[in-house]
UniProtKB/TrEMBL annotation:
Residues 1221-1237 have a biased composition (Gly residues). Residues 994-1041, 1064-1083, 1131-1183, 1209-1237 are annotated as: Disordered. This is Ribosomal RNA-processing protein 12-like conserved domain-containing protein. It comes from Tetraparma gracilis. The keyword Nucleus applies. Residues 380-573 form the RRP12 HEAT domain. InterPro entries: ARM-like, ARM-type_fold, HEAT_RRP12, HEAT_RRP12_N, RRP12, XMAP215_CLASP_TOG.
Length: 1237
């Protein structure tokens, strides 16, 4: 019975034999050889064998016999491939006994492959198969010294080594791969046998290398760089390799360094003495041998010594500490070389520092880096990194001094790159060491006429930067070091001895100092001890009218200290903040009351760029944050006082009172998250009258809804729990008629919270949905995007709570019977969104056909907004319904859509997308039968586009050219034309019968709204420009439109004419896209440069011009030249290639004469033309003139409208000429009478 191995070999041969049906000749040949070997093995199979499969030994013997036969030379390639697969499964004793014969056979085959008579391509493949056979054979043997010392194995290895110097890269690569595989196998078993055989050969190649003989070494290097980590041991080759750097040949040096780097990066298994010796050799000899002009070699060298030091530090820290100063010195030297070397050197230094290979005692060695000005962008951040590793070490202080010095030198020299690098580095130091250590190393000093030296203003900028918030700090230091500086600046500003400019600068320094207050609060470690005193000064500073900007800084600092204490879980800081509630909260409330005064608000607005609304927002936000650390009793007493003021304010009306109400409601909103149950009920009762009534301003109502929304978010159970739900629903439905437009978004969010609190399927609770759904649907048409989003969210929440989907659809369909088109359109949009969201559910799929049939009836409407919504719903249904469900309604869908495919209210792009989807599902002919005859051209265009896409798909190997599956937002889907597969171009039939392809009609999903507004803007601009320009002109400018009529001549060779063509029939008014009876069957074409290709009657002589390609891509060629479309080129090209007919030349001359006469007439009729001199420039006063030249020009209001403005400017061109090179008003004589205005 055969073993599993024997069966495996037989299966391999059988698999190769079954590939004879393939078209590849090499596969067919291999299959034939495999079948022949299998047949030979079957013939030698004993009749008494119980298995029909020959053994692996039989296959090995048959292959060996075939290879030894000279007549098998044409099949050596296939036989060697099969041998490589058979040897690993053959008995070891059989392979060992036949090893000499196999070595002899392989040597003879190598000789045949190297003979000149053999073709290059076959010998190449044969040598690669030979290398694979050697690898398979030697790999199957024991990896011992006895194996590799045997003559047969030595001969096989020699075959591989001979291929190392082959001129063919593929052969060398195959030999390298085979020998690397053997070396990996030997190294995995811990046997140095193969390494001992290879090292002498590799050392011989290295020693034989000279400046004139480097090719053998370069052939060996790809193998050596991978083999060096596998050699056991690698030491004997390191010294010869390093000696090659003395040749100073960049290719050789680079390969040597790369090979050694691969050795060091292979792992930490190298012995420490070997690594130390290698590093010492690199530092002593190699550095002087590097080519100075080759940054690649220098970068490799830097990486090599860095990797060696990192490896030595992990194996022998003591040895690494002794040698690291030399390494650091060398790396510092390389930081002054070039840009690439600096980047590599600093990266390696940073890597060594992160591996703790840079002790604090080595920091002075890096001080020289700060002097490399050209490398500041790289070295200064590294110095900051080193300082951050040892911020408290005395050796790190000089590094910080060097950074400050670099910043000062950059200021003096004006080097922006160095200034930016030094500032970023010092910001890193500030975040790590803190402001106290930072200012201790670089204290702020004064200057003559300024409390703070202007050269040190960047320090204040760093202290108030957001990065400083992460630095450890103390409020005591802020109070003792920075606040005195602020007082000093304030005293200098008010001293009376400083100039106005100096006083303003000093006031700005006060603001800069306080701007650092939030950063100190965020990282403060002494809140309990120092915050009470600092808070008193900060709150007092808020009331200083001379510095309105202090309020924002102080509020931001208070919020920062509270957030730091609460989020960090600092109980001591929280208790300290809570003990100050009686001082901080009343002060903040007083600020709100002071800012509520309109006079004070106006004064604040005029004194600073910060508005009173911004200040109020900052204070109320601070109150909300500080409420987190206050006691419930204290908040309750404060809230009662606010409620008293709120109730008193509701008794009166007026703008001033509305402003007061708004501020009080802001206070209630700030305190809402921390209120108890009783306070919540009181606040709800107080807010309801403001929401239900419109007696107060819109802002008051909006704030009321905002407060109510905050209560829903934080106290939902207290409002809608139990009996509160019914009262809340009644209140919201009762206030429907008084809601202001600006409050819709907040109201919808409140409704959403109420709906989400309903019990699913509870009819008594869900009865509120039909009451408010009309309001929600109308909000879907709101101009505010946030309101629309809130409306959709509320609608979907209703759908979830209304268990019966059919019932919910009926509620929405009730909007179809509304009296206004606006409401009917909103109902369609609501239905579209629900179907879009639940299309995959069975409850929606079953009613979708009836919903579509009902919606199709709306195409009889005349309101554009209803039709637009209906088209969007149809688009969603076509994508959601199965082909079987949609097929009976295809006719109705197409009939309804095509009613709106013409005229100014058309939705051509969206309709075309729907038609394409229908064609994809049901075929062109099925959809075409429902399309009106006048729109068959559109279907033809869709068919051609589909065929073009199919050809592109086939050309790309069956891959889809453009995706058609929509993924995105609901509103973007309704508004976008992204699925238009013809590149956002729409087929149009003009009044002249030409079929045009409009460009740019499609919109991307991301830019749908932006492009819509841009398109409307461009449309209005084009209309105004077209009305101001004359259509009789033969040339057009950028943005003009030219109306082409029959019987008129135009300069069609003008380069800008092709962009501004408009065709119109004289017998029709306006521009419509309905198809003409005599229209041709060709589409408008554009060449590959985007130029227009127009058919005409002008002949083109032979030898001139080129014919345009067929844009419909049918592959048909026209027989005659006069039937082809003529390609319009630019004027320069036309002058060289196109010979224009005489008729065109005459027409052009006629147009020039007409234009000249028109200009004369216009000039004679221009205002003030009678004052023009006929003999010279300037104006003259003739006899009988009562008025001076241009003393009076009649004004006409109609002449200066947007439409007529261009014509008036043209008239005045006869009066004032544009300035030339000589300046305005200068003629040849440099003088003349100036015209009076």
């Amino acid at each position: 019975m055969d073993s599993p191995t024997d069966t495996t070999v037989h299966n391999i041969f059988q698999a190769f034999s079954l590939t004879s049906h393939q078209k590849d000749p090499s596969r067919i040949k291999l299959a034939a050889v495999s079948a022949a070997i299998t047949e030979t093995c079957l013939e030698t199979l004993p009749a008494s064998s119980s298995s029909p499969a020959p053994s692996a030994a039989a296959y090995f013997a048959a292959l060996l016999s075939s290879l030894s036969s000279p007549s098998s030379s044409p099949h050596f390639l296939d036989l060697l491939k099969l041998l490589s697969l058979t040897v690993p499964h053959s008995p070891l004793s059989l392979v060992t006994s036949n090893l000499p014969a196999l070595a002899k056979i392989l040597s003879s085959i190598a000789g045949i492959a190297s003979s000149p008579a053999d073709p290059a391509d076959s010998s190449n493949a044969l040598l690669r198969s030979l290398a694979a056979a050697v690898e398979a054979t030697v790999s199957s043997l024991p990896q011992t010294r006895a194996t590799y010392s045997s003559p047969a194995v030595t001969a096989m290895l020699k075959l591989l080594l001979l291929q190392f110097d082959d001129r063919r890269p593929k052969v060398r690569k195959a030999a390298h791969s085979s020998l690397l595989s053997l070396l990996s196998r030997s190294a995995s078993e811990g046997s140095p046998a193969l390494s001992e055989r290879l090292c002498p050969y590799l050392a011989q190649v290295v020693e034989a290398t000279s400046a004139d003989n480097t090719l053998p070494l370069l052939h060996v290097f790809p193998f050596l760089s991978q083999a060096l980590p596998l050699l056991l041991p690698p030491g004997p080759l390191v010294a010869p390799l390093l000696s090659l750097t003395a040749l100073k040949l960049p290719p050789v040096t680079s390969q040597v360094l790369s090979s050694l780097l691969s050795l060091l990066e292979s792992g930490p298994d190298l012995p420490a003495p070997f690594t130390a010796s290698l590093l010492a050799t690199l530092l002593k000899t190699t550095s002087s041998h590097l080519p100075k002009a080759d940054p690649a070699c220098q970068s490799s060298y830097v990486r090599l010594i860095s990797a060696a030091l990192a490896l030595l530090s992990s194996a022998d820290p003591a040895s690494a500490a002794r040698i690291s100063p030399a390494v650091f010195h060398l790396l510092v030297v390389y930081c002054s070389q070039g840009t690439e070397t600096v980047a590599v050197a600093t990266a390696e230094l940073r890597k060594l520092a992160s591996l703790s290979c840079v002790p604090a005692s080595s920091l002075p060695a890096f001080r020289k880096l700060a002097s490399f000005t050209a490398s500041h962008a790289t070295v200064l951040p590294f110095l900051a990194f080193l300082y951050c590793l040892h911020p408290s070490s005395p050796e790190a202080a000089p590094l910080l001094a060097d950074l400050f010095s670099a910043r000062s030198q950059a200021d003096a020299s004006g080097n922006k790159a160095s200034k930016t690098a030094a500032t970023d580095a010092l910001s890193q130091v500030l975040a790590a060491a803190g402001p106290e250590a930072f200012l201790a190393a670089h204290p702020l000093r004064s200057a003559p006429g300024a409390p703070v030296d202007p050269a040190q203003l960047w320090v204040l900028d760093l202290l108030k930067a957001p990065a400083a918030a992460a630095a450890p700090s103390t409020l005591a230091f802020f109070a003792s070091a920075l606040l005195p500086l602020a007082r000093k600046c304030d005293a200098h500003a008010n001293s009376g001895t400083s100039t106005a400019l100096e006083a303003n600068a000093s006031r700005q320094r006060v603001l800069d100092v306080w701007a650092a207050f939030p950063q100190f609060c965020a990282g403060a470690k002494d809140v309990g001890e120092s915050f009470p005193g600092v808070a008193k000064m900060a709150l007092k500073a808020c009331t200083d009218k001379r510095y309105p900007g202090l309020l924002l800084s102080v509020c931001s600092g208070i919020r920062a200290v509270v957030d730091s204490a609460v989020e960090g879980g600092d109980e001591e800081a929280t208790a300290a903040l809570c003990s100050l509630e009686a001082k901080v909260m009343p002060a903040l409330f007083n600020l709100v009351e002071a800012l509520s005064d309109p006079a004070a608000a106006d004064a604040a607005d005029t004194q600073s760029n910060i508005s009173a609304a911004q200040k109020l927002s900052a204070v109320t936000t601070t109150i909300a944050v500080y409420s987190k650390v206050c006691t419930a009793g204290f908040l309750g007493s404060l809230f009662k006082k606010v409620m008293q003021k709120l109730l008193l304010a509701t008794q009166t009306q007026g703008p001033e009172n509305d402003a007061k109400l708004t501020n009080l409601l802001d206070l209630c909103h700030a305190m809402a998250p921390t209120l108890d149950g009783g306070s919540v009920s009181l606040l709800v009762r107080a807010v309801k009258p403001m929401i239900r009534s419109d007696a107060h301003g819109a802002l008051v109502q909006k704030r009321g809804y905002k407060v109510l929304l905050s209560l829903f978010e934080h106290h939902s159970a207290a409002i809608v729990g139990g009996e509160g739900l019914e009262a809340t629903c009644e209140f919201l439905t009762g206030s429907m008629m008084t809601v202001h437009v600006s409050a819709r978004n907040m109201r919808l969010q409140c409704l959403t919270h109420v709906v989400k609190s309903l019990e699913t399927g509870n009819k008594e609770q869900t009865d509120i949905i039909p009451t408010v759904i009309g309001e929600v649907m109308l909000c879907l048409k709101d101009s505010n995007k946030k309101t629309r989003e809130s409306g959709y969210e509320c609608l979907l929440a209703m759908c979830e709570k209304r268990a019966d989907m059919n019932d919910f659809y009926q509620i929405i369909l009730g909007g179809y019977a509304a009296q206004t088109p606006h409401m009917r359109s909103a109902a369609v949009m609501a239905l579209s969104r629900v179907v879009f969201e639940y299309a995959r559910e069975d409850s929606t799929a079953t009613v979708l056909p009836s919903l579509l049939k009902t919606t199709l009836m709306l195409f009889r409407e005349k309101a554009r907004e209803v039709i637009k919504s209906a088209v969007g719903f149809v688009r969603i249904c076509v994508a959601a319904m199965t082909p079987e469900e949609l097929q009976p309604l295809v006719g109705d869908v197409v009939e309804g859509l095509m009613k709106w495919n013409h005229g100014k209210d058309r939705f051509r792009a969206k309709i075309k997308i729907i038609l394409k989807k229908l064609v994809m599902r049901y075929g062109f002919e099925h959809v075409k039968q429902f399309v009106p005859k006048e729109d068959e051209r559109l279907m033809t265009h869709i068919r051609k586009i589909a065929e073009r896409q199919q050809r592109k798909k086939e050309k790309n190997g069956g891959q889809t050219v453009r995706g058609s599956v929509y993924e995105g937002d609901f509103e973007d889907m309704l508004d976008s034309d992204e699925e238009d597969s013809d590149g956002a171009r729409t087929l149009m039939t003009g009044m002249t019968g030409f079929t045009q392809m409009t460009a740019g009609s499609g919109k991307s999903l991301k830019n749908a709204a932006v492009e819509k507004s841009e398109r409307q803007s461009m449309k209005s601009k084009a209309e105004s420009m077209a009305s101001a320009k004359s259509s009789k002109s033969g040339k057009v400018g950028e943005g003009d439109g030219v109306l082409v009529r029959e019987g008129q001549d135009y300069d069609m060779l003008d380069a800008s004419m092709a962009k501004n063509l408009k065709y119109q029939d004289e017998n029709r008014r306006g521009y419509n896209e309905d198809e003409s009876d005599d229209s041709d069957d060709e589409m408008m074409e554009f060449d590959d440069k985007g130029r227009l290709v127009v058919g005409g009657e002008w002949g083109v002589e032979e030898g001139f011009g080129e014919t345009a390609g067929d844009s419909d891509e049918d592959g048909k060629e026209h027989a005659k030249l006069n039937k082809k479309m003529t390609q319009f080129m630019s004027a320069a090209e036309d002058a060289k290639e196109i010979k224009r007919p005489m008729k065109y030349e005459k027409a052009q001359e006629k147009m020039k004469e007409q234009d000249k006469k028109r200009r004369k007439t216009d000039a004679a009729n221009a205002p003030g033309a009678k004052f023009k001199s006929k003999k010279a420039g300037g104006d003259v006063r003739k006899k009988g003139d009562k008025l001076e030249p241009y003393a009076y020009i009649p004004l006409d209001g109609k002449a200066y409208t947007k439409k007529m403005r261009g014509g008036e400017v043209e008239k005045m061109s006869h009066v004032v000429k544009r300035a030339g090179k000589g300046g305005a008003g200068k003629g040849k004589g440099g003088g003349g009478n100036k015209r009076k205005r």
